[in-house]
Every structure is written in C-alpha cells, then in structure tokens.
Design goal:
Layout: H1 2-19, E1 26-31, E2 36-38, E3 44-49, E4 55-65, E5 72-80, E6 86-94, E7 105-107, E8 110-121, E9 126-134, E10 140-142, E11 144-153
Antiparallel strand pairs: 1-11, 2-10, 3-9, 4-8, 4-11, 5-6, 5-9, 7-8
C-alpha cells in the first residue's frame, strides 16, 4: 500500500510541475494549399517580444510527404524588426540522406524536420515579422504540407 501511495504522490507532483510550465511565447503553423509551396506564397509570422533580457529558442518545423523528391529544401528567413530594419538569411533544411533515407521524424507518409535556433536574444521590444520564402528555382515545390514556428523563452537553468 505504501508503494501505491508513493506512486500517486509522484504522479501528482509531476502533473503539478508540468502544468506550471510556461506556454510558448508564440506557436503558429501555415498549411500549404494542395501540398504545394509556390514562390509567391510567403508564410508570415508576427511575434511579440516583451522582454529583451531573456533568451528565446526558435524552432522551425517543415512537414513534407514521403513523395517529396528532393533531399533538401532551401529557404530564406526574412526578419523585420520593430524599428523596421530588415535582414534576409538563406538556410538549408536537409530532408533525406544520400541513400534516400529520411533524416527527420517519419510517421506514416509524413516526414517532419525541425531547425533549432537556440538561445537568441532579441534586441528590441515589440513585434518582429518573420517571413519565409522557398529558395529553389522551380516556381513551386510539391509535397510540402506545412511550416510551423515555435518561439519559447529559455528556462533559467541557474536557479
């Protein structure tokens, strides 16, 4: 009986602590129509940053189908700061290994790849606009389901 009550106590404490975790600062997905990312489609995410002292983790997730015919995806990450400054960064998402095996998490016919931009400080309070562009020469890319952005405050590990 003592073991059972210890288990219940541990379970309750775990639930309390997991319920106390902060929700993400921002979380949003953009679904592509007909599984196609056309060049003129530029998913846009507006993130309100309220604290310039804290660090944030950014997680960009791309979901494709197993019918995606390339091993990677080039994209541009465009940032507009609250004071109107603009920056454009190219980056590559590796989707498959040279042998054709999937790099990301595969569930059924869906492959999910995530890019982590960890511990970034934002210099200004206010709204940041992040816009994504596909960066290949084709006018559209097939078998792209959606793209998501998650922004999470970094937990203070010094406490």
């Amino acid at each position: 009986m003592k073991r059972k009550s210890s288990f219940i106590f541990i379970l309750l404490v775990s639930l309390v602590f997991s319920a106390c975790e902060k929700p993400p600062t921002f979380e949003k997905s953009y679904a592509f129509s007909k599984k196609q990312w056309n060049q003129q489609v530029k998913p846009r995410f507006t993130v309100a940053i309220k604290d310039t002292i804290k660090e944030y983790d950014f997680v960009l997730t791309i979901r494709t189908t197993t019918e995606y015919k390339y091993s990677n995806l080039w994209m541009y990450w465009n940032t507009t700061t609250p004071d109107g400054q603009k920056a454009r960064e190219p980056f590559e998402v590796k989707i498959a290994n040279p042998d054709g095996s999937w790099i990301g998490k595969k569930t059924g016919t869906i492959v999910e790849n995530a890019l982590y931009f960890k511990r970034r400080k934002m210099p200004l309070k206010g709204k940041y606009i992040f816009t994504l562009e596909q960066g290949i020469t084709n006018s559209s890319i097939d078998e792209i389901l959606d793209v998501s952005l998650l922004v999470q405050e970094v937990k203070d590990t010094k406490k």
